[in-house]
Amino acid sequence: MAAVCTASRVLAKKVLSAKALPAVSQSSRKLHFSIYGKNNSKVSDGISTQYPVVDHEFDAVVVGAGGAGLRAAFGLSEAGFNTACVTKLFPTRSHTVAAQGGINAALGNMEGDDWRWHFYDTVKGSDWLGDQDAIHYMTEQAPHAVVELENFGMPFSRTEDGKIYQRAFGGQSLKFGKGGQAHRCCCVADRTGHSLLHTLYGRSLRYDTSYFVEYFALDLLMEDGECKGVIALCMEDGSIHRFRSKNTVIATGGYGRTYFSCTSAHTSTGDGNAMVTRAGLPCQDLEFVQFHPTGIYGAGCLITEGCRGEGGILINSEGERFMERYAPNAKDLASRDVVSRSITIEIREGRGCGPEKDHAYLQLHHLPPQQLATRLPGISETAMIFAGVDVTKEPIPVLPTVHYNMGGVPTNYRGQVITHTPEDGDKVVPGLFACGEAACASVHGANRLGANSLLDLVVFGRACAHTIADICTPGEKLSPLKPNAGEESVANLDKLRFADGSMRTSEIRVNMQKTMQNHAAVFRTGKVLKEGCDKMDAIYQTLDDIKTFDRGIVWNTDLVETLELQNLMLNAVQTINSAEQRQESRGAHSREDFKDRMDELDYAKPLAGQVRKPMEEHWRKHTLSTVDHKTGKVTLKYRPVIDNSLDAEDCAAIPPAIRSY
Amino acid sequence: MSIFDMLIQLLLFNIHFKNHLEEVIIALTNIGANYFSKLEDISCCSHLLLRDCLWLAGTCVILGHWLLSCQQEQSHQDSAVTRKKYTMLSALVAKRLVSGVCQASWRPAVAELMTTRGYKGEAPDDSRGDLIEIPLPPWTEKDGETMDIKRRRLLFQSRKRGMLENCILLSLFAKQYLNTMSEPQLRQYDRLINEPSNDWDIYYWATEAQPVPDVYTGEIMDLLKEFTKNRDQEQRLDAPNLEYLDKGSQ
């Protein structure tokens, strides 16, 4: 069956003529316009006569070409689906390339290991906000995923006897936390992210995936609650493209750029979350923003956790290894939120380093220079350029910096996007999937463990591909779409292109970033958050008064950055409003006025005789936020955490407990 | 190669025991085949290990045949029987080794290709197997683009990079130099920021942490290296906003 489809596809390609596009020089990028369709891609006038719209038809469309997007696209193409991958960046330039840490998997090469211990670590790391069925799926699939990647060609670093080298990473333990530090992070020297992208991109090309590179996805095409595709802007010639498909996978990454100081590239603008919000669907747990303990003070560039895994330590102004006090067992390799909070407390109590006593030091010069050069070469350059420090002699000034977004588009463990009502529970949105940082499965819950993110990408990218392969067959006929679907997006684009208000894009952006940085940082208080919510609301309204200066349509960076700003604003308002409402401290969300976790039972005391609180009275639940994108008003609802694993006999669920390292 | 040395010793020892020769040869081929099936278990893709295994297997076969021919010379009466045994044994050897090879994840032992998307770094841990064995389609220059459009494209591509370090560095560099670059300079810059597959490489070359490959050396690379040194000690905390391009405000 698949062979017949492949044959017909090959034939169809030969029949298609090049489509008519206005004033475009003959494109030499063969990859970009691999047009496929039972109907020829056609230029339609349904939306606007000024913006020629080209329609494409595919079996599956993936938005985003990072680790998760490429894995999904590769899996789908391998399964015979005609897949398009729409991305605003060249695949090997996605933010995944920055990942230097590695992938966690219980292979057991350095010491005896069991994926159930990894399951326990992840559930505990999520502060019991993670859905245990999704975590079960991820940790059980981890060793298979790593071996699979190796078969695809990723050259993992090896030990002397030829097994995959695994290093220690924060929050990983043996024997359900009782057996000491576990070594389960597999890496490809220091370029794990790049190797992942290169391998997956290269292999997916052999299966004939169509890549639409430097196309900015504007919105989802929704009809009757079903997702029927994506509409995107081609940056090269300013044309609009509608990608019609029965299956759309969102893999657009996180939204670190809502904050003034973050470790993310300028491409992390939460485009997928915003597309889902504008479609009227909820986003989950956006208040949980991870602050990486060691971002360079000032620029925010990341110093990977792998440094601490290889022996680096954090010290305060007195030269004390202060993590020993906050996490006696794990010390510097405690979970990230614990380390971030510890650094912030040290600074607030006056033991910060530097002239303003406002950061901590990461010491690496006690490690052998050979080890630094081979296992962590990038660190020396980054420290020298952005902090002026020689790592073999001096410590690096570091500060907790926004690094990862645990929240995102809510999905089940199979990668399908869900909505929730108290009466009916979780309901799948047909045709829509999400994976990677953009999704919230939720495996990371309230806090993500290091090296679990790359694992999340490959496991759930693959899960989306498998689920689509289970539900659909390649070559299925598409349901009809209204001829003017997507016209709102084009109208918005046009409005921004000719916007002539009084506030520039960069001004509004800086206002938003500073507000988020000052009001929704590591430690949050009710009053400061409320002030922040009001300020954010005011800033949201200034979007109507925006001013852009570039009126062109070809390679208009100003327009793209303005679209990204719109997306960031939607993420920012949801983040700060959800944080203001959540009156407890859990994982990465720390409230100074509500220092404890509020679960349905008090797990610090013996459970016998306690009465289970109803969902309205405790906080062990997911936040679902929606925004009316015209007014900026945020509505919050809640959804219970999934506490049972996929197979109770194979892997018992972990009941909540007090979280200490 | 210590296993190999061991086997040589065993073989030389056993040559005296001509009666057991067949068993020795069968044992050798079994070891060779086991080595290959182990390849499948650990799914190793390091071509060094594969090379060793091929060597070992090949040597087993050669030795086996040599020993059999020695035996054959020595016993002329049973030449017919011996020939039959010889062919059966060869068939057995060939079958075990070929099936072992087919089971293992076969990768063509490619000579060290210097693709334009990869170059030798210093990390011994990194075999760069993915870059050698999964070459991406080569980068080609865009034809028919006006200089103005090229500048606009390169501006977007300078500001949107894979990691923050490059975002900051290249957008500041673009702010300073992009609008005054000549056409050959623009082409050099285009190649520099778009051809390398790993964004980190551009960063290592700019910071002189690693040597620049010959294809990228030139005026623009020198400008970038000098710019990175930041002799004026200006603060480089973030990428600049775009307003410097707004002619209306100037």
Model description:
The complex is a heterodimer of chains A (661) and B (250). The longest helix of chain A has 25 residues, at 557-581. The model of chain A is unreliable at 1-40 (pLDDT under 50). Helices cover 32% and strands 21% of the residues of chain A. Chain A has 661 residues and is an alpha/beta fold. In chain A, helix 2 (67-78) runs parallel beside helix 5 (192-206) and helix 14 (505-519) runs parallel beside helix 16. The interface between A and B is large, with 78 and 69 residues.
Blueprint of the fold:
The complex is a heterodimer of chains A (661) and B (250).
Chain A: H1 2-15, E1 43-44, E2 53-63, H2 67-78, E3 83-87, E4 103-104, H3 115-125, H4 132-152, E5 166-173, E6 181-186, H5 192-206, E7 210-213, E8 215-223, E9 226-234, E10 240-250, H6 271-278, E11 283-284, E12 289-296, H7 306-309, E13 313-315, H8 323-326, H9 336-351, E14 360-363, H10 369-375, H11 377-387, E15 396-405, E16 409-410, E17 416-421, E18 425-434, E19 439-440, H12 452-471, H13 487-497, E20 503-504, H14 505-519, E21 523-524, H15 526-541, E22 546-547, H16 557-581, E23 590-591, E24 621-628, E25 633-640
Parallel strand pairs in A: 2-3, 2-10, 3-7, 10-18, 16-19, 20-22, 21-23
Antiparallel strand pairs in A: 1-2, 4-6, 5-6, 8-9, 9-10, 11-24, 12-15, 13-14, 14-15, 17-18, 24-25
Chain B: H1 2-14, H2 21-42, H3 47-74, H4 79-103, H5 129-133, H6 147-159, H7 164-177, H8 183-194, H9 199-206, H10 219-229
